[in-house]
Design goal:
Blueprint lengths: L4 H10 L8 H9 L10 H5 L6 H13 L1 H12 L6 H9 L3 H7 L12 H11 L9 H21 L4
């Protein structure tokens, strides 16, 4: 499923995934005609009310640096999941997070805040071939998450 570029861009900005771009500036981008990644340039950013030339350069640079997050937001939006998960996914999986998630969507569980049911929906909407319930990738990811949680629980138990 494909999501219009302007919706992905809005979700990316609204989730605060573009470093140095505040919430007030996010609202001003659309008013200035910046609604897709193709619209992001130093010249266009400098025309936004409240953005000086030097800040426009910084914003353009940080937008390029945030492309791994943007790529993950594209996947998340196609699966109708919150864009905010992109931050943790890129932190956990690195700059190639989108490619990793295309191959093994259940790796999203490792980034925290995602329930196994959401990861299953994400996998169904991300993978070209419908995965089976016995898909080895599905079994590995929740196990890693449960194993981590279990270690924490044992650590917190009081001796009797």
């Amino acid at each position: 499923m494909s999501v219009p570029m302007d919706e992905v861009f809005a979700a990316f900005c609204d989730a605060g995934l573009w470093p140095t771009l505040g919430r007030q500036m996010t609202a001003k981008l659309a008013a200035a005609g910046i609604t897709t990644p193709n619209d992001v340039s130093v010249d266009k950013l400098a025309k936004v009310e409240g953005i000086a030339a030097k800040r426009a350069e910084k914003l353009a640079k940080t937008f390029v640096e945030a492309q791994p997050r943007y790529a993950v937001v594209e996947l998340l939006q196609a699966a109708r999941l919150p864009a905010r998960h992109a931050f943790a996914a890129v932190d956990q999986l690195g700059s190639s997070a989108a490619a990793t998630l295309r191959e093994d969507p259940w790796r999203l569980l490792g980034s925290g805040g995602v329930e196994p049911r959401d990861a299953d929906v994400f996998a169904l909407r991300t993978l070209a071939a419908r995965p089976g319930k016995d898909d080895s990738r599905r079994g590995r990811a929740p196990g890693r998450r449960v194993g981590f949680s279990g270690r924490l629980d044992r650590h917190r138990r009081r001796p009797r």
